[in-house]
Amino acid sequence: MQTAEDRLRALFVKGLAGDAPAYRAFLEQLTRHLRGYLRRRIPTLRDDVEDLVQEILLAVHNARHTYREGEPLTAWVHAIARYKLTDFFRGRARREALHDPLDDHDDLFAASDDEPAEARRDIGKLLEHLPDKQRLPIQHVKLEGLSVAETAQLTGLSESAVKVGVHRGLKALALRIKGLA
């Protein structure tokens, strides 16, 4: 039984001597071996396998004059394939590094985030419809984060009036949003 080394080397040497069908057969058999090799090494990048196979075949063809007939052909091809695979990983890492989402200046002006400003404006419009004894407690306690005691001191209302104002004001806002008020 002939090994892949013997079979490929025989076809390659015949191809080097000018036997075009033998060289074509060598490339076809080598293609199958390369696909298997690459699919095991980059299983998640299936789309890149064929491109890489073609690059390796081209490199083997262009470097065919460097092969020494007494040396193992598979080791020579493996060195070329490994180099191309390493080159592929370097290029991919470089592309990913170059396409840093932090450096994508087009995204900076693609859309603005006016949502917080719009929300503040909408809340302000809703609060305008409430009496001061409900609006001010909601504004100070819920929106500004002041305590009930601080709000009472600031507005002149009792702490209990601040709590009632927040409760009733939120209830009135809920009804207004639902369209019932």
UniProtKB/TrEMBL annotation:
Family: Belongs to the sigma-70 factor family. ECF subfamily.
Record keyword Transcription present: yes
GO BP: any one term: DNA-templated transcription initiation
UniProt-recorded name of the protein: Sigma-70 family RNA polymerase sigma factor
RNA polymerase sigma factor 70 region 4 type domain sequence ranges: 121-173
Annotated GO MF terms: DNA binding; sigma factor activity
Domain RNA polymerase sigma-70 region, chain residue ranges per copy: 26-95
Keyword list, A-Z: DNA-binding, Sigma factor, Transcription, Transcription regulation
Alphabetized PANTHER family for the sequence: ECF RNA POLYMERASE SIGMA FACTOR SIGD (PTHR43133:SF58), RNA POLYMERASE ECF-TYPE SIGMA FACTO (PTHR43133)
Pfam family, one: Sigma70_r4_2
Organism, scientific name: Paraburkholderia acidisoli
